[in-house]
Amino acid sequence: MSLGVRPILSALLRNRTGAVLVAVQIAIALAVLVNALYIVVQRVEKIGRPTGIDEPNLLMILSTGFTARYQEVASIEEDLSWLRSLPGVVAASAISAVPLSGSGSAGALMPRPGAPPTDSVNHMEIDEQGIATLGVHLVAGRNFRHEEIQPPLTENNASQFVPEVIVSRALAEHLFPHQNPLGKPVYDLLGQSATIIGVIDPIMGNFPDNPHPDWLYLMPRLPAPFFDGVHYAVRTQPGQRDTVLRLAEAHLAKSNPDRVVNWVRPLSYFKNLSYLWDRAMEIYLLTVTALVIAVTCLGVFALATFNVSTRTKQIGTRRAVGARRRDIVRYFLIENGLITSSGVLVGCALALAAGYWLSLEYALPRLNLYYLVGGVLALWAIGQLAAWQPARRAATVPPSVATRTV
Amino acid sequence: MLGYYTRLALKSFGRNPGLTALMVLAIALGVAVCIMTLTVYHAMSGNPIWWKNDRLYAVTMDNWDPNQPWRPDWTGPPPQMTYKDSQYLFASNIPERKVVMYSVDGVISGVGSAAPERVSTRLTSADFFAMFEVPFLYGNGWSASADRPAQPVIVLSREENEKLFGGSNSVGRTLRWNDHEFRVIGVLDEWFPRPKYYDLNGGNFAPPDKAYIPQQWGIDLALLNNEDTDCWRAEKVDNYKEFIASDCVWQQMWVELPDAASRERMQSLIDGYWAEQHKAGRFPRARDNRLTNVAQWLRDNKVVDNDNRVLVGLAFAFLALCLINTVGLLLAKFLNGATITGVRRALGASRRQIFVQHLVEVGAVSVVGAALGLLLATLGLAAVHHLYAAAHLGQRGGYQELTHFDVVGVVWAVILAVAATVAAGLYPAWRIGQLPPAVYLKSQ
User: Fold this and answer.
1) Do B236 and A357 touch (CB under 8 A)?
2) Who is most buried in A361, A403, B377, B411, counting CB within 10 A?
């Protein structure tokens, strides 16, 4: 084999420019491919995290009272009993904020009064149908009972806590590692306590971008009207979501002149908005990576074609003195292999450097080396494939060419 | 001579139409990806009021928790202020203009038969319009005397006036805002600063509010901020009175200071107030009170995020790849035609002439490639705009706001594209001129 490589190498070194250009392209392509895929895979994982919520069948509604006649509790009761009576509705609950939307409330929650506050913990207010509406699994303890649902906070008791809470398993594990959280008290910043009566898992709260999107506790209380009004979550049977949406939109717009219904929207709308940028990154990175590969293939193909076309005479001569077609194909593939290999070698260094820069930008773990190995193999294969057609064409040069003058 | 070279170039393209098309396509793709990325980056990194960069300052004070900063990844004071601190500083006469504000959702009703609608409303003070150079279509803002006691006056955005009054001059008309009667005193012209530098809490590219009323209304009606309210202190906040006296941050404050002297006086006023409060037990962290200009404000708030820097890096890597590819293709093409060049040299063409002739060819390829790239970028941006707008159900204020071409950006992109390609063509054009003609005149 070494007998075959040395003349190819020395021929290559005599005419370097084209080869160097292709090797540089392969190096850049490797760096882009490996790092772009690494970022894409992380976004795919981020978007695909389990939420525990029955996303496809949930509707969200926002209702805001705006006159002095508006009665918060009466309005909520009327709306909920109407929504729950609709055919196709599985459950409905008042809720303080839209899950997965990036907006909601968070605060400190501590296992002992006066313990140092940890990262902020997301919380939502729901009623006794809240768990069934979201579709989350209660893995321990019990749900809220109807009589435990507290009236909304008013402008006189806005810092009041609740007697019971349901917590996510992740939060329970954080507050009480390796212990049974049921029956344990938790404390807010003012030292008021609540008892954990249930544990849900998995669940993602209001903030998909938070470091701990699964730290969540639920309070049995109707939402206060201070912020933007009261939200309702409505869970429908599969396939009924859009029908219920239209019914709710039409009815709620007219049912109470002292409030406005700002919108009735599927939960997927909010989730999509939360991940819009991540999705755009995925599409963009994949598109550019595909283009990078395509342009690189083009470069390899063009160089090989050029080499074949300028060497027709030599190929004919080799064929005339006894080289088989196989040998000609082998020559060009080895030549291309040498170029690709040197490109890949430089590309590894480039990919690692780019990966290092990315790890600084994103504060992410350094590039996984499996990606690099995969990228090297992929580019090597792609490079050989791109040179395959020109090499085959070279092999069809008849030996008689050697005897012709131009 | 140039005409002759152009004809030669066209002839040469005709000899290898496939190769020429590939070159144009490679350049076009590289340029298109670069223009798209840079357009978004340019829109993100813009300073919509750069001409006031040495006058306009965000005021912030670090009143936060002694044990941790406002956010884990944040240094410096929180971006909003407490009500009491902002009110104290607002009383000062040092700034030429001053604004304290927040935004709420109010329900507008009582206009003809239009259904009541919740609109994002800015509760602000009289100087807002002059300070941020907000254009008016009809009427004006209010004067400082309407700030307190709060007068029932309202300014509408052009869009909202369109919706409520069909775009007519509505100054003097009345409407109900949260069921209180207000008189329209002004209608804004189209105004959409990107990023929304004066209040980044609701999203960096969120649309401006649709209505503006004196800030005191919010306090009188006990309204909370609809964007961000952050609290840290373990204090009982049961009612609105306790809330506005609390250490919660929810007010935005800006001042306009014409010169260094007034800036120093403002800074020392703030620091003096800080010292006084610190002695009384507030402001437990080290002193960090800031007057931040808009450019720095946008940096501090990380309006341009990491993803965008990565995308710009990727776009340039791709452009480099396309250009290197073009160099290779050009070289192959020129060497393919070396026999003809050899003849031309033998007949007396100088190296310089050969160089210029090939450069004309390169120039033609690059101009066509750049034009095609511009077209591709326009289509690509339109597609991106469409996708984002669809995800927002057609409402404004999402990332689709970043896909606007501006003239300066396009000019730069075209210059970049042509310059890069011509630069890429320099080497092949030079190289072909260096060939000894004799070799190519011999038969093989």
Assistant:
1) no
2) B377
